[in-house]
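Structure tokens please, single chain.
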Amino acid sequence: MNLSKQQLKAIDHDQGPALILAVPGAGKTSILLYRTLKLIKSGTDPKRILTITFSKAASLDINRRFQHIYKDNFNKPVFSTIHALCYGIVLDYARLRGKKYTLIESGSSSKFKIISDIYYSLNRKYLSEENIEEILNKISYFKNSMKNPQDEKTNIPNFMQIYLNYEYYKKSKGLIDFDDMILLSLEILKKENYILNKKRSAYDYLQLDEGQDTSIAQFEVIKLLASPKNNLLIVADDDQSIYGFRGASPDYLLKLKEIYKNLKFYYLENNFRSSKNIVNTSKLFIKKNTNRFNKKISTLNDYIDPVNIVKVERIRDQYRFIYENIKKYPDKSHGILYRNNLSSLGLMEYLERRNVEFNLKGSGVKILNHFIVKDILDIIKFSNNTTDIDTFSRIYYKVKGYISKAHLKYLKNNLRGDLFISLVNYPNLPNYYKENILKLRKDFKILKALNISDQINYVINELGYDFYLRDMSEKFGYNYESLKEFYIHLSYIAKSERTLDDFIGRLKYLDYLIKTKSFQDSNISLSTIHSAKGLEYDCVYVLDMVEGILPSISDNVETLEEDRRLFYVAMTRAKNHLYLLYPKTFNSKSVAMSSFLEEISQVK
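Here you go.
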């Protein structure tokens, strides 16, 4: 491999702390590989070199790549995730002190189930998996940033009590999660000199990959292990720090010189990946952030294609544009990126209907498990049998009609055939109430006669389910716009189906595609921007570039700067062609174009 002067300087670093600031496409992994090889050739025992990654996938990848350049399978350096490293510390402590810890992710208890039960006990409401994940991310944020949850407000009802109950539950059962693993290992290293010295003496050199993704708590662990020799080399790009929601921040990188007075800086400023058009545009864009290192981002690549801002009328017009472009460049790799997993639903439906094989990255959305799907299916199911009291008891307060628990109790004791006719006989029921009930009965008859797509729209708009979602969002801190986006995608998927059974079958198939990650060898990838980090594609498409999604709506400068970094990561995944798509209508209403695109227009 031909290495640049900048790369060779970084590889030659030997003793003491160092920070390598690597722009996108600068070959940072190669630096770690060849620096490791150089240390070994200089006489360092391979087993005394520890390279720490955040993800298991990154650890496996760097290990695999190292084996291509180093053939000694019996005497290899150590490549480990930060969590595996900390788990080893916890296990050492457990053996030393006769304690037992069970990792919650691998046991029979699910974090999602525990949080769901706690939330219901406090708020009398079951949550969707997306909402549970939001709570878990918030808990993770406080732990990894080492902040007190009492010091910040959240929009999650009774969050502080949820946090305390979750901690109490785990402690009472001897359970720990991945975040506990970090904090517990930090606590152990601070109080158990035997374990601290054992871990310190195991390695002469520590290398940290993707340093910008490391949380404050994780860095404290690494800092303790590296001391007192401080042979710590960190490869990072502060401009790609996009995991603030789990406690990562570029701040510790910017203040690293305060911790290590003899810190050496190395700059890898040449982007080997992207065209000059993409590098120049993304460089000028990210420079608007103030909380960053000032890097001279450049490339030796040629100009290929201007950055394209594509304005379309509707969400599905984005899909059509992408589909036509894929046909135009069938042999190129295509990365279709979006901020929220929900954005993949309509796109999957569109591409799969046209027999386009794609590879789905990230967790995706569990469609049939979503409470909106369950509610809509229940409402439609009830329209087919208005004597079904069990189904009605799950939906009566989610549709218009003002039916109360007292009415439901009366029905359970006095149901005679059609539920609405029975309810009209409720004692002393006012005439206007009877009219409401009979109108609701008529609505359910209309619902029954519609095709499945129109049924979904009728449930939302005519039966009042949209009002229920709005009200629930206000009471329980849900994101109403995300809920609305979900049911709009459902309606779109249903347009190609005739019956309820056909629709359910289609959702099951899409769930299967999400679960199996679809066609792994396809040159077309659907991914959140977060999941695409570290990857590259010939053509990149960024969906839903509307104000409120990217960037999100916030007056917080830190949030805006992280959103800017997120968009920068999306842009710099592209090698040759970059398409930024703005649908003028989003969630059935006119929306403003992303202010980020306004900035791009000025710098192109």
